[in-house]
Amino acid sequence: MTQAAIKQTPSRALSEHHTELDLSHGQWRILNKLLRKSSDCYGESLAPGISQQKVAQLRQRCREYCKNILHIYPKCADALALLSRIALDCNELNKAKKFIRQALQYAPNASVCWFSLGHVYLAENEHDKARECFQKTVKLEPNHFRAKAAYAYSCFHQGEIVSAFNIYKRLIHQNPDDPHVKSNLFACLKQLTADADTQELDEQLRFYLDLDDVDHSDLSRLIASLLIHRYQLNDNNSQIDIALLCKDKLYLQALQVVIFSSDMIEDLNSSVRQHLLFARRCNLDELNLKICLAIQAFNNEHVMAYDDSERLVLEGRIQQSELILQHKELDQQQQLTLLDNWVSLMMYEPSSCFPSLYNGTMLNHMIDTASAINTGGALLTNLGRLLKLCFSHAEKDIRIESLGTISDSVSCRVKAQYEENPYPRWLALPYQTPTEYQQALDAVLPEHGFAPKQQGQTLQVLVAGCGTGKHALQCARYFRNTQVTAIDISHSSLAYAKVKADHYQLNNIEFLQMDILELKNLKKRFDIIECSGVLHHMNDPLEGARVLKQLLRPGGIMKIGLYSERARSEVVHCRDMIADQGLESKPKDMRELRRQILSRPEQWPAVLASPDFYSLSGCRDLLFHEQEHRFTPLQIDTFCEDLEMEFLGFVRVPAKHHQAYRKTYPLDEHMRNLGYWEAYEERNPLTFGGMYQFYVRNGSIGSKQ
Q1: Phi first, then psi: what are they for 464, rounded to 5°?
Q2: CA quadruple 418, 420, 421, 423: dihedral, nearest 10
């Protein structure tokens, strides 16, 4: 959930429309001073990491300054605009609209007023009206950066992705460090594909790959589509020039920071990897390409299959390295051969598979050798990155507090799975606008009925089954005044999450290793519990939900994520195939299943469309999980009744299905009728491909009304 409005502090001095006021010089000075103070307070209230209590204090001080301004000059549009923005931030839409309309009466050509009114319409999901306001703002103030960004935001949420992208791509060059523009730009890029290979798009993508504080994997689809055009990967007769690939900066850069989720790019990478392995001797450009492929392999956990011919060559590389290491002193060529052999192995298997063959001292010697003959620098930089990835043991040194015992047989099997393959594999957190949990909830689930016990309190949030922590860290980083408790059954997953939390310097999140079934012993109560993608992996999902319910304070709410029976029909067929062939959740068998699926892409469109298919931990979670339950909307209705909690509605429903449901069932104002959802999903079985995600609360059951 993200906050809709892109914030901007109003001007710090009285706007031009006040220049002819009949005020004394002293009054002018007082007004300007008060307005600067009020603007400073409001701007400070928007800062990330600030407590909700401090936000409330700053807003109140801003209101007081504005009241003093209006006492001196009741028609001050700047002060009224500030009061409107504060009301909007507090979700008081009627009050916000009243203030800003009053301001426009006094200053109809004030850009700050039109900008604020546009955000009121955004909060009301009146995107056409919002866009008119932002257009008016830009007409009055042509260089208004935030108004242009807000206009693009409205385009995006009306499905005009290309229009939004064309605006954001200009704005990002004006201010590459603006977090809001970066975040929304990448939201656009995630949904775009290339119609052709152009130099302009290539340069743009390389620029985006250099940006910080973004999730570069959002570029996977767009980069893949461009490379498909560039190398004609749709043509089975096309041939790849390795020399061109070695010089392809976009391809080399993407291999290092993007987890590709494309069957065609995987086929390209697999073919190139095999060619480089079979080559008797690689030049430095080819060695650099091998290093980049090895980094990609590390990022996707060496998910790609390989055949017996490659296995024989790898064994030969190992034997060659062992013979070289028998010499007491190695010449430059032997050092380079060892380095080339090691990089070749890293393209296929993790470093843990070769503990006795390579050590840090020897690798340092090989780096020195490579440094002596490499003048470009890129090879050494990439090699250093690969070494850091392969030999970093930070997660192994992390200690996580463990509470209770894990004795349930299903829990033990699930724990073993995630100890071997922590999930999900993620590299970076995308930026989100800091906001309050309640305000974010208002945007996606009106009439949810949740409210903090008192204004400014610290919300206690439990993320039950946090895995490697991406969502838990987002909650801690972007929801103001929250204390997050993140639990998981797997130490490996929690260690991954803790390393990432330290990287982002988060001190409002606590990690505990424990089974959900043991949570009844936790002496703590929570305002919000989030448990997505977890209960359906338990022996009895309802039992797990009942344990969580006991930890909710009165008035608290719980978010649950469950698999859809219809949306996972392909997964069910895959699981049948796994059982028929006696495949196990080992890397060799998972790669074999993937090879079979990739050889018949027309039979498995939904599986191939899942990003989870393109990493080893993701593939195991998607297709080889130890335990899986699936549901339908009517079964969710029964689940909520048995849990004695009220269904509040689905969130994160794809926009096209959200709109289609509203059109089909206009009388279901809050979209809570699970009988209607059952009928809708029967006609549209892939609606909930990303799980049912919904909120529940204690109270009467109202899903069929």
Answers
A1: -95, 110
A2: 30
Q: Of 143, 26, 22, 11, nearest to 82 (Cα)?
A: 11
**Length of the chain (residues):** 705
As beta bridge partners, residue 695 has 559, 649
Neighbour tally for 349: CB within 10 Å: 14
User: Strands 526-532 and 552-562, how do they pair?
Assistant: parallel
User: Which residue's structure tokens are 């060496």?
Assistant: 302
Return the pLDDT at 655: 83
**CB-CB contact of 427 with 212 (8 Å):** no
Q: Judge whether 551 and 529 are in contact, CB under 8 Å.
A: yes
- Three-state DSSP string of 249-260: HHHHHHHHHCCC
DSSP 184-216: HHHHHHTT---SS--HHHHHHHHHHHT-SSS-G
Q: Which two tokens stand for residue 584?
A: 């196990």
pLDDT band of 80, cuts 50, 70, 90? very high
Q: Which two tokens stand for residue 434?
A: 């800091």
CA R_g for the chain: 28
Which candidate, 250, 296, 254, 257, places its Cα nearest to that of 273? 296
604, 609, 614, 620: CA torsion to nearest 10: -60
367-390 pLDDT tens trace? 777 677 665 678 888 988 998 888
Residue reference for tokens 């977090």: 179
- Identify whether the C-beta of residue 28 lies closer than 8 Å to the C-beta of residue 22: no
Question: Does 163 score more than 60 pLDDT?
Answer: yes
Query: In angstroms, rounded to a whole number, what is the distance separating the alpha carbons of residues 31 and 76?
Result: 9
Which residues are CB-contacts of 145 (< 8 A; sequence separation ≥ 6)?
Answer: 171, 174, 175, 178
Decide: helix, strand or coil at residue 646: strand
The rounded distance, in Å, linking the Cα atoms of 89 and 94 is 12
Q: What is the pLDDT of residues 119-130, one digit of tens each?
A: 999 888 899 999
Q: Which residues face 697 on adjacent strands?
A: 557, 646
Locus of tokens 């339950």: 629
Contact criterion met (CB below 8 Å) for 365 and 335: yes
CB 52 within 8 A of CB 480: yes
Sheet of 509-513: strands edge to edge?
401-402, 509-513, 482-488, 459-464, 526-532, 552-562, 692-698, 645-650
